[in-house]
Amino acid sequence: MGKMVMQDIFSLKNHFTEDDKTEQQSNASNGEQIISIKLSELLPFPNQPFRPYSDEKLWELAADIKQNGVLSPIIVRPFGNAYQILAGHNRVNASKLAGLNEIPSIVKDVDDDAAKLILVNTNINQRDKLLPSEKAFAYKMQLDAMNRQGKRTDLTSCQVGTKLAGSRSDVRLSECSTDSARTIQRYIRLTELIPELLEMVDNESLAFMVGVYLSYLSQEKQQLLYEYMDANELKKVSLAQAEVIKSYKEALDDNRLKLIFFGLKEEKKKATTTYKLPTDRITSYFPDLEKSEIEQELIKILDEYFKRGG
């Protein structure tokens, strides 16, 4: 397989996209040959991080393709006796719904890592909306591929807020992304979450940074946390709570979770408890005294009372 230059891979974002707003608006091919390939000869890319369109969105794209055709070619690579899709999964699925038999394609003879970089780059920089989980696994796939191509990456050892330096792959990748290198680090941390907690980040029950902090827990402790939240109908974890949970790590248990979620609230409530006395009744005992004088008399009475043993 031929090996693509990294700049060539990143430049693909200017011409190809999975997003329905733009994928039918351009037929630019960057000077490369476009051929028609039968839909029956196309294979999806395995374990890709991007979710397919919803049925409604796919039918909308199919209607557009039926009316206008596929204006932007997909990208594929030779794969045995067939072709593997690198960019254009949704266009392929919509074309099938539209009744097409073939689709315009650009064939690239690339290795596995270059294929992954094409797959990720044509999606992550072009889609209007990506779930945190999609970005997380996409960045991980991208950084792993860059690392295997000889680029250095230290993401597995990075902590939250680590100062970045040098020619690390995340720094280089950030130059071709809308996210900073530090944000890329944090997205990749989300790949360490158990599916249940990652889903909560996707549906915004858990804030992004809360998910990052919880990702430092072992899978076992994450499961403990999720089950505790589910049993106690807890829908949120604050950033402050997440920091405390992260600090416990393997020492985390039900008792500590109870203290984190409920104990702090009880202490706060206890600290702010106030007492109200019926003003009319109190003043009836001291009709000739001012408010400050009444307070002094009450204190004296209470002192005497407790001196006698209450």
Automatic annotation (TrEMBL):
Protein name from the UniProt record: Chromosome partitioning protein, ParB family
NCBIfam families, sorted: parB_part
Positions of the ParB-like N-terminal domain: 35-124
SUPFAM superfamilies: KorB DNA-binding domain-like, ParB/Sulfiredoxin
Molecular function terms from GO: DNA binding
One GO BP annotation of this record: chromosome segregation
SMART domains noted in UniProt: ParB
CDD domains reported for this sequence: ParB_N_like
One CC-aspect GO term: chromosome
Short name of one Pfam family: ParB_N
Family membership: Belongs to the ParB family.
